[in-house]
TrEMBL record:
The gene is pyrB. The lineage of its organism: Bacteria, Bacillati, Actinomycetota, Actinomycetes, Micrococcales. Pathway: Pyrimidine metabolism; UMP biosynthesis via de novo pathway; (S)-dihydroorotate from bicarbonate: step 2/3. Residues 2-146 form the Aspartate/ornithine carbamoyltransferase carbamoyl-P binding domain. Catalyzes the condensation of carbamoyl phosphate and aspartate to form carbamoyl aspartate and inorganic phosphate, the committed step in the de novo pyrimidine nucleotide biosynthesis pathway. L-aspartate binds at residues 82, 174, 230. Its EC number is 2.1.3.2. It catalyses: carbamoyl phosphate + L-aspartate = N-carbamoyl-L-aspartate + phosphate + H(+). InterPro entries: Asp/Orn_carbamoyltranf_P-bd, Asp/Orn_carbamoylTrfase, Asp/Orn_carbamoylTrfase_sf, Asp_carbamoyltransf, Asp_carbamoyltransf_Asp/Orn-bd. It is an enzyme of class 2 (transferase). This is Aspartate carbamoyltransferase.
Length: 318
């Protein structure tokens, strides 16, 4: 594995390897000294063309815990805002000696363009590209599910037979796409629930069940996991549903729907949450919620990815 651009082309063994290495990284994070010398002398560049708080800080924390040097590059206020191209930016980073690039971009496919170019010879990690994919988010979600469902016995296991319901803005969600491909590889069954206007064209060819009735799905499937997605209003250029009140009534995880879930059903949200719209405060703050665990586990997953791309594979090949 030279880059991490998508979960679609991850094999089951590769995915489980990342999850298992993340278990080791989580153990490091629980120590008094939360550092490993593994990437000492390496430079990781966070190249963010879109605003981000959670993902950028998570990658920064992960790199620093592996003793790497970190350069944070934001498009705002940089030469990019003056018209500099991705190629010129990448070549500048190459000249600086970047050993790994974490990129978030508003255009779908930008990380792949960077990885397949000869502009920079360094592993590229997709931290979210347009409405395409967000692979490390899907990996941390799977890691969180595995830990909650199997506890100490989670190492080496996939998610075979696990029922996952993903609800909300599927159309604009790179998280939904990355989760679908990864969960399918790990053996889980995925059901998408959304308004018809927020379901992507061609979804019938995807390996998921699609429904527009959340109450029916929750009643009939009794899922192991319910994942609520954020309404991405910044990507919407039209009215995809009449108003927030109707959306919450039909597709939100309110107190009534939450009370009908099994006591062991996991409630997830990739954040940031719109409380009262996609999810109620009671559901978000409950013992069944993994929202804060997902943030914590994100650091472990990103440590594992950086380790495998910048250290692990190179050592194996030497």
């Amino acid at each position: 594995m030279k880059h991490l651009l998508s979960t679609r082309n991850l094999s089951r063994d590769e995915a489980i390897q990342i999850l298992d290495v993340a278990e080791d990284m989580a153990d490091v994070s629980n120590r008094e000294v939360k550092k490993l010398p593994t990437l000492r002398g390496k430079t990781v560049v966070n190249l963010f063309f879109e605003d981000s708080t959670r993902t950028r800080i998570s990658f920064e924390a992960a790199a620093k815990r592996l003793s790497a040097d970190v350069i944070n590059f934001s498009a705002k206020g940089s030469s990019v805002s003056k018209g500099e191209s991705l190629k010129d930016t990448a070549q500048t980073l190459a000249a600086m000696g970047a050993d790994g690039v974490v990129i978030r971009h508003h255009s779908s496919g930008a990380p792949q363009v960077l990885a397949e170019s000869n502009w920079i010879d360094a592993p590229v990690i997709n931290a979210g590209d347009g409405t395409h994919e967000h692979p490390t988010q899907a990996l941390l979600d799977a890691f969180t599910m595995r830990r909650r469902l199997f506890g100490a016995a989670s190492r080496g296991r996939d998610l075979h037979g696990v029922s996952v319901v993903i609800v909300g803005d599927i159309l604009h969600s790179r998280v939904a796409r990355s989760n679908l491909w990864l969960l399918q590889t790990l053996g889980a069954h995925v059901t998408f629930v959304a308004p018809a206007t927020l379901v992507p064209f061609g979804v019938e060819t995807w390996p998921a069940t699609v429904s527009y009735d959340l109450d029916r799905v929750l009643r009939e499937t009794q899922p192991d996991v319910v994942m609520m997605l954020r309404i991405q209003s910044e990507r919407m250029n039209a009215a995809y549903f009449p108003n927030a009140r109707e959306y919450s009534r039909e597709w939100g995880l309110d107190d009534v729907r939450f009370s009908r879930l099994r006591a062991d059903t996991i409630v997830m949200h990739p954040g940031p949450m719109n409380r009262g719209l996609e999810i109620s405060a009671a559901a978000a703050d409950s013992a069944q919620s993994t929202v804060l665990e997902q943030v914590t586990n994100g650091v472990s997953i990103r440590m594992a990815v950086l380790y495998l791309l910048l250290s692990g594979e190179r050592e194996a090949q030497s």
